[in-house]
Every structure is written in C-alpha cells, then in structure tokens.
C-alpha cells in the first residue's frame, strides 16, 4: 500500500509576529488603558488580529463593532512581513529519508492560525481551480508532480522523486525530521493565543488545506516523535453503479466543487462554510476559499463569523443523514491518519556548552534568548491494511437469506417448491384430461365413485 499512501505536515508557530515590526501586546495594553494608538498601527492591528484566536478575551476592552467589517484583498499579505523566522541556516536541519533538504521545501499556507509552513502538499495550482482567487505566494515548481491521485495512487514506475513525496521505509530513518526549530524569547506573545507557546502541527491529505482544529502540540524545548498509521478506505466495483445517496459517499467525479479540483469531504465542508459565511456576513475569512469579487472579513465581522460558523456546524450535524446544507459525504476512496505522539524534554543547552568548550559556538544565538524544538514524523509500519466499502446485502445475499428463513420457519426447500409447482400445474392438467373436471384432484375415492 506504499504506492498510494502520502501525507502532508503543516507547522503553525504560535509566535506569529516579529515584535520589532509589530508588537501585538503593546497595542492591546494601550487599548485597555485607553491610550492613543496611531492610525497606521491601528490599521495593522485590526488586520493582524484576525489570526489571534484569543481576541474574544478582549471584547470587554475593544469594541469590535467599531472596527472595519472588511479588509483589502491583499491586506493579509502583510503576514509575510511580520512572521518571525523559525529556522536558522546554521542550526535548523530538515531531513527526509535521511537526506538533508532546504527549508524552502516548506511552502507558506494560510490557515485559521495565520501563516504556516507546509511540507509535501500539492502546489496550489493543483489544489485550486483558480489560484488567483486565493491569497498565496506559493510558487512551488509543479514539474515534479507525476499524476498522483488518491484513487489511482502513484505511477507504477518506481520513481523515488515523485511528488507528493512518499517513503519506502518505516521508522524514524524513513520519515521527516525537523531539527532545531528556533523561537526567540523576545517574540513570544502571551495575549494573541491564550498564553500557549510552541507550535501547532497537523497531518493532512496532500490536496487539502490543513484544518488546524485537528492538531497536536510541539512545545518549546521539547522533542516530539509522531508515529503515523494511514487509514485508507476504498470502494468495490459492485458499488460503482449505486447512487451516492445509497452508498453514502462520492466518487471523485460525482460532486463538483467550485474552488477545489479534488473532491474530499474536508474540501467540501470548507467550501460550504465559505459560502455560508458570505451569505450571513457578506465576506469570508482570510483563510477561506474566495473569488476576486468577494471581500475579506475584518475585525468588525469577527462576531458574525463566529456565530455563522456555529450555526453552520449545527446544520451540518444532519449531513450524515442527507439533510445537511451541502451533503458533503465522505470520498469513496479516502485517506486519513491515526497518530501516536510521544515527547521528551530536550536539554539543548548542554550541546551549546560543548560547542562553546570546543570553540565551535561561532554565530550561535544567545541561549538565554532562544528556544529550540525538534519534530520527527514517520510511518509506524511499512505496510498497512485498507478497508473496502461493499454491499451489505446484494441480490444473492437477499435471496439466500429469504430462502434460509423460509426453510427455517416452514420447512420449505427447492424440492418442495418444485413439488408445489408440479401439483398446481402438470398434475392438475393431467387429472382433468384423464378423469374430467369433477375429479381434478385425482383422489382415489372420487375415481372409484365415478367408475361405479
């Protein structure tokens, strides 16, 4: 099954701003104390606050209704300017299958957590129908893509440079290692995300934008090991002629998505939420798929977005039964991941002391102002088992069960059915012809009385 399994890894730093460029905490404190905030700082604050999940904690001090309800389409691109670096050229190492890669292998991805780093995701022009309708600077080269698909997997040729990348090894040596991700103490922000520091990490399908509501944590100064076990569901040929409503899943060509090239349940739900948000608020979140005619929601619309998402989720609870707004059934061929994590404290300071004694410290950062984290993602086993969607009761099963029940309750069998047919047809016709209509049953008493 290694021919079809692949996954992407997205890392979202909880430190979202370089404090030398934009200090979120200082502006919040000014607003709480009623101090004046310059216009340019306030405009940047209202834009960048959209990536802070803890903004509702300050609703007592900040009147969201007085803020701009929409923002410019390109406003969120400022995240590229204020995002702190999480890697250092001389320290941070990225390895795949034991071979070192450039950190540029990660592409920038807009999520609900702001600007994140994604490894092994399809390029945006392979995910979206119109890349211009999505905020992106992703210029990933698509020449290495070799017609991978979830239904068909990879080509039969043994390409080791296929994209999305796949591994042929289980265990740590066959996975992704990100060593010494860097965080500066001066960049830590204890107000933007409810005082939780470190990184959020999500594993997802290569043709999906990550859903950061499904994540695990990579803390500061910790090493986290992630064991991945793919869970794949395929479909039998017997179900291909069924309607989607009957089999409760969609084939890749059966449901068209306006924004996405590939149908998955996550893409369908994301598109449906975007359409619902437009309907309720007149705008969409910066991380949602959109068109060039749709504006992005500003800080003044954060309450509307929150309420509309709750109403949308309530409506979608009936989707499993075909009553949802968009009927986002699962894909008939779907891929998800079971994850087991373990972590240990990483005393990297000891390594710095050794480098210092050996005279190798060089341009290493001040350890009093630094935090480092390590992430290792790998497949637990070389092979995995897939499940297949199949008929619960086919025609053969139905008639077998009916025959079995009839035989159980009334002792009927195939021979009994032939006998019944014989007595109702051939035997009846022969008796009438031989003895007449009055002796149609062929009873001996009736035959004797007739002869007399």
UniProtKB/TrEMBL annotation:
<keyword id="KW-0812">Transmembrane</keyword>
<keyword id="KW-0406">Ion transport</keyword>
<dbReference type="InterPro" id="IPR001873">
    <property type="entry name" value="ENaC"/>
</dbReference>
<keyword id="KW-0813">Transport</keyword>
<keyword id="KW-0472">Membrane</keyword>
<feature type="transmembrane region" description="Helical">
    <location>
        <begin position="405"/>
        <end position="429"/>
    </location>
</feature>
<keyword id="KW-0894">Sodium channel</keyword>
<dbReference type="Pfam" id="PF00858">
    <property type="entry name" value="ASC"/>
</dbReference>
<dbReference type="InterPro" id="IPR020903">
    <property type="entry name" value="ENaC_CS"/>
</dbReference>
<dbReference type="GO" id="GO:0005886">
    <property type="term" value="C:plasma membrane"/>
</dbReference>
<keyword id="KW-0407">Ion channel</keyword>
<dbReference type="GO" id="GO:0015280">
    <property type="term" value="F:ligand-gated sodium channel activity"/>
</dbReference>
<keyword id="KW-0915">Sodium</keyword>
<keyword id="KW-1133">Transmembrane helix</keyword>
<keyword id="KW-0739">Sodium transport</keyword>
<protein>
    <recommendedName>
        <fullName>Pickpocket protein 28</fullName>
    </recommendedName>
</protein>
<comment type="similarity">
    <text>Belongs to the amiloride-sensitive sodium channel (TC 1.A.6) family.</text>
</comment>
């Amino acid at each position: 099954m290694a021919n079809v399994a692949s996954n992407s890894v997205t890392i979202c730093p909880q430190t979202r701003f370089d404090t030398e460029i934009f200090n979120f905490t200082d502006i919040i404190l000014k607003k709480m104390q009623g101090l004046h905030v310059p216009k340019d700082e306030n405009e940047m604050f209202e834009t960048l606050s959209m990536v802070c999940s803890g903004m509702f904690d300050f609703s007592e001090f900040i009147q969201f209704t007085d803020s701009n309800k929409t923002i410019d389409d390109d406003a969120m691109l400022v995240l590229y300017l204020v995002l702190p670096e999480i890697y250092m050229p001389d320290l941070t190492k990225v390895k795949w299958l034991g071979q070192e890669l450039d950190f540029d292998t990660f592409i920038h991805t807009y999520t609900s957590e702001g600007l994140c780093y994604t490894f092994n995701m399809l390029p945006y022009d392979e995910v979206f129908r119109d890349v211009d309708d999505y905020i992106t600077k992703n210029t990933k080269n698509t020449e290495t893509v070799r017609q991978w698909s979830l239904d068909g997997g990879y080509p039969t040729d043994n390409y080791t440079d296929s994209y999305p990348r796949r591994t042929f090894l289980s265990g740590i040596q066959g996975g992704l290692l990100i060593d010494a991700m860097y965080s500066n103490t001066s960049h830590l922000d204890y107000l933007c995300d409810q005082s939780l520091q470190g990184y959020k990490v999500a594993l997802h399908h290569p043709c999906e934008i990550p859903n950061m509501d499904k994540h695990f944590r990579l803390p500061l100064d910790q090493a986290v090991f992630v064991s991945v076990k793919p869970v794949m569901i395929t479909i039998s040929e017997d179900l291909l002629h069924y309607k989607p409503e009957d089999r409760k899943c969609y084939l890749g060509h059966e449901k068209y998505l306006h924004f996405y090239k590939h149908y998955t349940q996550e893409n369908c739900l994301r598109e449906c939420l975007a359409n619902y948000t437009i309907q309720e608020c007149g705008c969409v979140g910066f991380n949602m798929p959109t068109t060039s005619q749709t504006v992005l929601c500003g800080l003044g619309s954060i309450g509307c977005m929150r309420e509309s998402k709750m109403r949308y989720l309530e409506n979608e609870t009936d989707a499993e039964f075909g009553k949802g707004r968009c009927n986002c059934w699962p894909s008939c061929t779907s891929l998800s991941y079971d994850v087991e994590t373990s972590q240990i404290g990483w005393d990297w300071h000891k390594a710095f002391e050794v480098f210092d004694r050996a005279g190798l410290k060089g341009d290493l950062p001040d350890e009093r102002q630094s935090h480092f984290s390590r992430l290792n993602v790998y497949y637990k086993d070389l092979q995995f088992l897939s499940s297949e969607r199949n008929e619960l009761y086919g025609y053969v099963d139905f008639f077998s069960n009916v025959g079995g029940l009839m035989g159980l309750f009334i002792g009927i069998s195939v021979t009994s059915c032939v006998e019944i047919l014989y007595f109702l047809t051939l035997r009846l016709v022969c008796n009438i012809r031989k003895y007449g209509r009055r002796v149609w049953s062929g009873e001996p008493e009736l035959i004797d009385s007739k002869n007399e």
